[in-house]
Write a structure and sequence with these properties.
Blueprint: H1 30-47, H2 56-62, H3 79-85
Helix pairs in contact: 2-3
Length: 97
């Protein structure tokens, strides 16, 4: 059975449980695949704070918002806006204890 895993989605039937899997990556020229992967990582680094600490996901989750990736998701609550509205943009903490 092919499950077509995608970001936060798959064709796995509801209620099914995986007990084993064989994963197959895309076939192709290794150099081309490496270039594609590097390009995707570069684009992510340009648009997301991957090198900086960020409380964004923690704010979203603590507010009870969990995005499923489904087309009907409501994206009204933005973590950056909650942080801005609280006057906490750029705030620094002492870190984990």
């Amino acid at each position: 059975m092919i499950l077509n895993f995608r970001y936060r989605q798959s064709d796995l039937p509801e209620g099914a449980v995986l007990v084993s899997a064989v994963l197959q990556g895309p076939l192709g020229d290794p150099e081309t695949l490496h270039h594609r992967m590097s390009d995707q990582l570069r684009k992510r680094d340009e648009t997301q704070p991957t090198k900086d600490r960020s409380a964004g996901i923690h704010v979203s989750q603590s507010c009870g918002v969990f995005l499923t990736g489904q087309a009907d998701d409501v994206h009204d609550l933005k973590a950056w806006k909650v942080i801005d509205d609280a006057g906490m943009r750029g705030a620094r903490g002492a870190g984990p204890k």
